Amino acid sequence: MDILLLNGPNLNMLGTREPEQYGVQTLDDIVARISALATDAGLSIEHHQDNSEAGLIDKVHAASKNGTKYIIINPAAFTHTSVALRDAMLATDIAFTEVHLSNVYKREAFRKQSYFSDIAEGVISGFGAQGYEFALDAAITYIKEH
């Protein structure tokens, strides 16, 4: 597998959860679009959404063993709380982009703290579902250059 697309807690509720913040597209819509674009680029992609920190960590650990070249992750609420998921990302040494649908800097103060931004290749925030496309473009470029 070339790219692992990870989505954290409550993102399975996209489309109905606070559409003014997160848009009206469902996670299935986003994943279908990103999967099609990755396939068009000749890359394989696997998606996993989990409301559990442990489930996301297990996927990151597995990525270190299955040849994953890049991770796109929206850690959602774990962005601000999960040292364990951060440590998993560091342990794998797989390049990644952090994605957020909303502009976290226009929201509550606690959302401005990320345990991932300083170790990510880049951070995309505030462009809604299109942010995943930006992250995929970055992943494709990274994979081609490495």
Walkthrough of the structure:
This protein is α/β, with parallel strands linked by helices and 146 residues long. It has one domain: 3-Layer(aba) Sandwich (Rossmann fold), CATH 3.40.50.9100. Helices cover 38% and strands 16% of the residues. The chain is built from 5 helices and 5 strands. The chain has a 5-stranded parallel sheet with strand order 2-1-3-4-5, sandwiched between helices. Strand 3 (70-74), helix 4 (83-92) and strand 4 form a beta-alpha-beta unit. Helix 2 (27-40) packs parallel to helix 5. The protein is globular. Pfam families: DHquinase_II (PF01220). One of its GO terms (molecular function) is 3-dehydroquinate dehydratase activity.
What is the name of the CATH superfamily?
A: Dehydroquinase, class II
Number of domains: 1
| Global mean pLDDT | 95
Low-pLDDT stretches are: none
Helicity, as a percent range: 25-40%
Q: Termini distance?
A: 15 Å
Report the principal-axis shape: globular
Number of strands: 5
Q: What top-tier CATH class fits best?
A: Alpha Beta
Subunit structure: Homododecamer.
Protein name: 3-dehydroquinate dehydratase
InterPro entries: DHquinase_II, DHquinase_II_CS, DHquinase_II_sf
Family: Belongs to the type-II 3-dehydroquinase family.
Give the topology, please.
Blueprint lengths: L2 E5 L11 H4 L4 H14 L4 E5 L3 H11 L6 E5 L8 H10 L3 E5 L21 E4 L4 H16 L1
Parallel strand pairs: 1-2, 1-3, 3-4, 4-5
Helix pairs in contact: 2-5, 3-4
What's the short story on this structure?
The chain is of the alpha/beta class and about 150 residues long. It is built from 5 helices and 5 strands; from the N terminus they run βααβαβαββα. The chain has one domain: 3-Layer(aba) Sandwich (Rossmann fold).
